[in-house]
Automatic annotation (TrEMBL):
Domain Mei2-like C-terminal RNA recognition motif: 69-164
Name this protein carries in UniProt: TE1 protein
Spans annotated as Disordered: 44-67
MF (Gene Ontology): nucleic acid binding
Top-level taxon: Eukaryota
Compositional bias segments (type: Low complexity): 44-56
Pfam family, one: RRM_2
Record-linked Gene3D superfamilies: 3.30.70.330
Source organism: Symbiodinium pilosum
Protein backbone atom coordinates (compact mmCIF):
# COMPACT_ATOMS: atom_id res chain seq x y z
CA UNK A 1 0.00 0.00 0.00
CA UNK A 2 2.80 2.44 0.90
CA UNK A 3 4.53 1.65 -2.38
CA UNK A 4 1.32 2.34 -4.30
CA UNK A 5 0.85 5.71 -2.61
CA UNK A 6 4.45 6.79 -3.37
CA UNK A 7 4.04 5.74 -7.01
CA UNK A 8 0.71 7.60 -7.36
CA UNK A 9 2.16 10.78 -5.84
CA UNK A 10 5.18 10.67 -8.13
CA UNK A 11 2.94 10.34 -11.18
CA UNK A 12 0.68 13.18 -10.03
CA UNK A 13 3.63 15.52 -9.41
CA UNK A 14 5.13 14.79 -12.81
CA UNK A 15 1.86 15.61 -14.55
CA UNK A 16 1.47 18.83 -12.54
CA UNK A 17 4.98 20.05 -13.27
CA UNK A 18 4.77 19.17 -16.96
CA UNK A 19 1.59 21.18 -17.38
CA UNK A 20 3.24 24.47 -16.34
CA UNK A 21 6.50 24.04 -18.31
CA UNK A 22 8.77 25.91 -15.86
CA UNK A 23 12.19 27.04 -17.04
CA UNK A 24 14.77 25.43 -14.80
CA UNK A 25 17.29 28.23 -15.41
CA UNK A 26 14.83 30.96 -14.42
CA UNK A 27 15.41 32.16 -10.86
CA UNK A 28 12.58 32.93 -8.52
CA UNK A 29 11.90 36.58 -7.58
CA UNK A 30 9.38 37.37 -4.91
CA UNK A 31 6.30 39.10 -6.32
CA UNK A 32 7.74 39.17 -9.85
CA UNK A 33 4.70 37.90 -11.71
CA UNK A 34 2.30 40.03 -9.68
CA UNK A 35 4.36 43.17 -10.38
CA UNK A 36 4.50 42.45 -14.12
CA UNK A 37 0.73 42.01 -14.23
CA UNK A 38 0.18 45.33 -12.42
CA UNK A 39 2.61 47.09 -14.76
CA UNK A 40 0.84 45.73 -17.84
CA UNK A 41 -2.53 46.84 -16.48
CA UNK A 42 -1.19 50.35 -15.76
CA UNK A 43 0.22 50.68 -19.29
CA UNK A 44 -3.08 49.56 -20.83
CA UNK A 45 -5.03 52.03 -18.69
CA UNK A 46 -2.64 54.85 -19.63
CA UNK A 47 -3.07 54.14 -23.36
CA UNK A 48 -6.86 54.04 -23.04
CA UNK A 49 -7.01 57.33 -21.11
CA UNK A 50 -4.79 59.07 -23.68
CA UNK A 51 -7.05 57.96 -26.52
CA UNK A 52 -10.16 59.05 -24.63
CA UNK A 53 -8.64 62.48 -23.92
CA UNK A 54 -8.14 63.16 -27.66
CA UNK A 55 -11.30 64.90 -28.95
CA UNK A 56 -12.76 63.60 -32.17
CA UNK A 57 -12.75 67.13 -33.55
CA UNK A 58 -9.00 67.48 -33.08
CA UNK A 59 -8.41 64.27 -35.00
CA UNK A 60 -10.72 65.45 -37.77
CA UNK A 61 -8.96 68.84 -37.89
CA UNK A 62 -5.98 67.19 -39.56
CA UNK A 63 -8.10 66.26 -42.56
CA UNK A 64 -7.57 68.57 -45.56
CA UNK A 65 -10.52 70.74 -46.56
CA UNK A 66 -11.38 71.74 -50.07
CA UNK A 67 -12.28 75.40 -50.57
CA UNK A 68 -15.74 75.97 -52.07
CA UNK A 69 -15.49 77.52 -55.55
CA UNK A 70 -18.30 79.78 -56.74
CA UNK A 71 -16.89 81.72 -59.72
CA UNK A 72 -17.22 80.32 -63.22
CA UNK A 73 -16.13 81.44 -66.66
CA UNK A 74 -18.51 81.19 -69.60
CA UNK A 75 -16.82 80.95 -73.01
CA UNK A 76 -18.03 81.29 -76.61
CA UNK A 77 -20.47 84.07 -75.86
CA UNK A 78 -21.59 85.86 -79.06
CA UNK A 79 -19.39 88.95 -79.43
CA UNK A 80 -22.36 91.22 -80.12
CA UNK A 81 -23.96 90.41 -76.76
CA UNK A 82 -24.06 93.43 -74.47
CA UNK A 83 -23.81 93.18 -70.70
CA UNK A 84 -27.54 93.82 -70.38
CA UNK A 85 -28.30 91.04 -72.85
CA UNK A 86 -26.05 88.70 -70.92
CA UNK A 87 -27.71 89.55 -67.59
CA UNK A 88 -31.16 89.12 -69.13
CA UNK A 89 -30.12 85.69 -70.38
CA UNK A 90 -29.00 84.65 -66.88
CA UNK A 91 -32.31 85.78 -65.40
CA UNK A 92 -34.38 84.11 -68.11
CA UNK A 93 -32.62 80.82 -67.43
CA UNK A 94 -33.61 80.94 -63.76
CA UNK A 95 -30.61 82.61 -62.12
CA UNK A 96 -32.13 85.90 -61.00
CA UNK A 97 -30.86 86.59 -57.50
CA UNK A 98 -28.42 83.66 -57.64
CA UNK A 99 -25.34 85.62 -58.72
CA UNK A 100 -23.61 88.59 -57.09
CA UNK A 101 -20.83 89.47 -59.55
CA UNK A 102 -20.78 89.59 -63.35
CA UNK A 103 -18.11 90.87 -65.71
CA UNK A 104 -18.28 90.68 -69.50
CA UNK A 105 -14.91 92.03 -70.74
CA UNK A 106 -15.21 94.20 -73.84
CA UNK A 107 -13.08 95.83 -76.48
CA UNK A 108 -13.90 99.53 -76.13
CA UNK A 109 -12.87 100.40 -79.67
CA UNK A 110 -14.72 97.60 -81.44
CA UNK A 111 -17.61 97.92 -79.01
CA UNK A 112 -17.85 94.16 -78.70
CA UNK A 113 -17.30 91.70 -75.90
CA UNK A 114 -14.32 89.34 -75.96
CA UNK A 115 -16.41 86.18 -76.02
CA UNK A 116 -16.26 85.24 -72.34
CA UNK A 117 -17.69 86.34 -68.99
CA UNK A 118 -17.11 85.80 -65.28
CA UNK A 119 -20.03 85.02 -63.00
CA UNK A 120 -19.88 84.49 -59.25
CA UNK A 121 -22.78 82.48 -57.84
CA UNK A 122 -24.12 82.85 -54.31
CA UNK A 123 -23.76 79.17 -53.39
CA UNK A 124 -22.64 75.76 -54.60
CA UNK A 125 -26.16 74.74 -55.62
CA UNK A 126 -26.37 77.71 -57.99
CA UNK A 127 -22.99 76.74 -59.45
CA UNK A 128 -24.20 73.22 -60.20
CA UNK A 129 -27.40 74.54 -61.77
CA UNK A 130 -25.62 77.10 -63.95
CA UNK A 131 -23.07 74.55 -65.09
CA UNK A 132 -25.86 72.17 -66.08
CA UNK A 133 -27.73 74.85 -68.04
CA UNK A 134 -24.91 76.67 -69.81
CA UNK A 135 -22.31 74.01 -70.54
CA UNK A 136 -23.40 73.20 -74.09
CA UNK A 137 -25.92 76.07 -74.23
CA UNK A 138 -26.73 77.40 -77.72
CA UNK A 139 -30.17 79.04 -77.38
CA UNK A 140 -28.82 82.56 -77.91
CA UNK A 141 -31.16 85.44 -78.69
CA UNK A 142 -29.05 86.29 -81.76
CA UNK A 143 -28.20 84.05 -84.73
CA UNK A 144 -24.89 82.25 -84.07
CA UNK A 145 -23.42 78.77 -84.18
CA UNK A 146 -21.47 79.24 -80.94
CA UNK A 147 -21.84 76.70 -78.15
CA UNK A 148 -21.18 77.87 -74.60
CA UNK A 149 -18.56 76.18 -72.44
CA UNK A 150 -18.30 76.52 -68.66
CA UNK A 151 -15.10 76.27 -66.64
CA UNK A 152 -13.77 77.45 -63.30
CA UNK A 153 -12.49 81.00 -63.08
CA UNK A 154 -8.83 81.36 -62.23
CA UNK A 155 -6.75 82.48 -60.50
CA UNK A 156 -9.41 84.52 -58.66
CA UNK A 157 -12.31 82.83 -56.89
CA UNK A 158 -15.21 84.30 -54.96
CA UNK A 159 -17.01 87.62 -54.64
CA UNK A 160 -14.41 89.41 -52.51
CA UNK A 161 -11.49 88.31 -54.67
CA UNK A 162 -13.12 89.69 -57.82
CA UNK A 163 -14.12 92.96 -56.18
CA UNK A 164 -10.53 93.48 -55.06
CA UNK A 165 -9.29 92.47 -58.50
CA UNK A 166 -11.30 95.17 -60.31
CA UNK A 167 -11.92 98.04 -57.89
CA UNK A 168 -8.57 99.65 -58.80
CA UNK A 169 -8.51 98.42 -62.39
CA UNK A 170 -8.46 100.83 -65.37
CA UNK A 171 -11.82 99.37 -66.39
CA UNK A 172 -13.31 101.29 -63.43
CA UNK A 173 -11.95 104.63 -64.66
CA UNK A 174 -14.58 107.35 -65.09
CA UNK A 175 -13.86 107.53 -68.83
CA UNK A 176 -15.04 103.94 -69.34
CA UNK A 177 -18.76 103.59 -70.18
CA UNK A 178 -20.75 101.86 -67.45
CA UNK A 179 -21.87 99.06 -69.77
CA UNK A 180 -18.27 97.82 -70.00
CA UNK A 181 -17.69 97.62 -66.25
CA UNK A 182 -18.16 94.70 -63.86
CA UNK A 183 -21.29 94.85 -61.71
CA UNK A 184 -22.24 93.50 -58.30
CA UNK A 185 -25.62 92.51 -56.88
CA UNK A 186 -27.31 91.66 -53.60
CA UNK A 187 -30.53 89.65 -53.62
CA UNK A 188 -30.89 90.39 -57.32
CA UNK A 189 -30.57 94.19 -57.00
CA UNK A 190 -27.56 95.99 -58.41
CA UNK A 191 -25.31 97.72 -55.87
CA UNK A 192 -22.61 100.35 -56.19
CA UNK A 193 -19.16 98.94 -56.76
CA UNK A 194 -16.82 99.62 -53.79
CA UNK A 195 -14.75 102.76 -54.20
CA UNK A 196 -11.11 102.34 -55.30
CA UNK A 197 -8.38 102.36 -52.69
CA UNK A 198 -5.93 104.22 -54.93
CA UNK A 199 -5.91 106.41 -58.01
CA UNK A 200 -7.34 104.54 -60.99
CA UNK A 201 -5.40 104.87 -64.23
CA UNK A 202 -7.17 105.45 -67.51
CA UNK A 203 -7.15 102.50 -69.92
CA UNK A 204 -4.45 102.67 -72.60
CA UNK A 205 -5.80 100.01 -74.96
CA UNK A 206 -9.07 98.51 -76.05
CA UNK A 207 -9.60 96.79 -72.70
Amino acid sequence: MQRYRRLRRAMTDSVFLGAFNFNEEETYEAGRFSNERVKAQEEAASTASTAAATPEASRDSTKPTTPVRTTVMLRNIPNNYSREMFLAMLDEQGFAGRYDFVYLPCDFYRQANLGYAFVNLVDAAAVDALWSVFDGFSAWSLPTAKVCQVSWSGPHQGFKAHVERYRNSPVMHRSVPDEYKPVIFKNGARKNFPRPTKKVKAPTAGL
